[in-house]
Amino acid sequence: MLRRTAARLDLALVGSPLARADLRWPTAATVDLVGRTVLGTRPYGKHLLTRFDDGRTLHTHLRMDGYWRVHRTEPSGSRERSPQIRAVLATDTWTAVGHLLGMLDVVATRDEHTLIGHLGPDVLDDPFDAAEALTRWAAQGATPAAEVLLDQTVVAGIGTIFMAESLFAERLWPWLPADQVPDPGRLLLVARRLMQRSVTSGRPPGHVHGRFRRPCVRCGTPVARGEARRPPMQRPVFYCPRCQAAPSPVTRPAGA
After folding, report:
1. Which CATH number applies to 2-116: 3.20.190.10, 1.10.10.10, 3.30.2310.20, 2.60.120.460?
2. Most buried by CB count within 10 Å: which residue of 19, 54, 152, 210?
């Protein structure tokens, strides 16, 4: 979970000046952050905003394969030689290493909105702007509910796992048109609650996602797998064909 990653970065970096900084990204390779102190890392949706005491922000996005790891600082720096590494931020005590990052930018902190201003409300923000999220949901018309949950411009932060788990919790067919979802506000709050529990426990619910052909935890029916979105942005959708049966009559979209 991104919030746990942000918390680890804060524990490792906040309050101590950077002894070493290496941004292995074409547009940021010459940026010098040595001597700067991290004020904190703000997660927003699937983005991380690491803010420094000089009014700059390091923006990173993990996409599908990226991750940050933290280890004790070593004089040799031997752990940072992999070509998969995109960023290294090191204090005298701890080193944070960004592997396979999907995005990296350095901007003035006041300009963060240029990177994330198009996104919907963060589902884990306190308070969560449910009214704005519902306004954005209503604009999606007949788009399948699974795709709207994945749309970061509607609500930021819900990924493939929690899309599937929240739809399963509410017994909703993933391809139900958004404007036919009985209570989208409730669905979004269920996704929020599941994600909050996962942040606390460190593990996702695991009721339906990744359980293809295994018995549904409710009814025993083998879990099915479909797709949301069109290539190359398609995402797997795990669901129970019985608990989340399609309404009748209905035209099934491709991938359902």
Report:
1. 3.20.190.10
2. 152
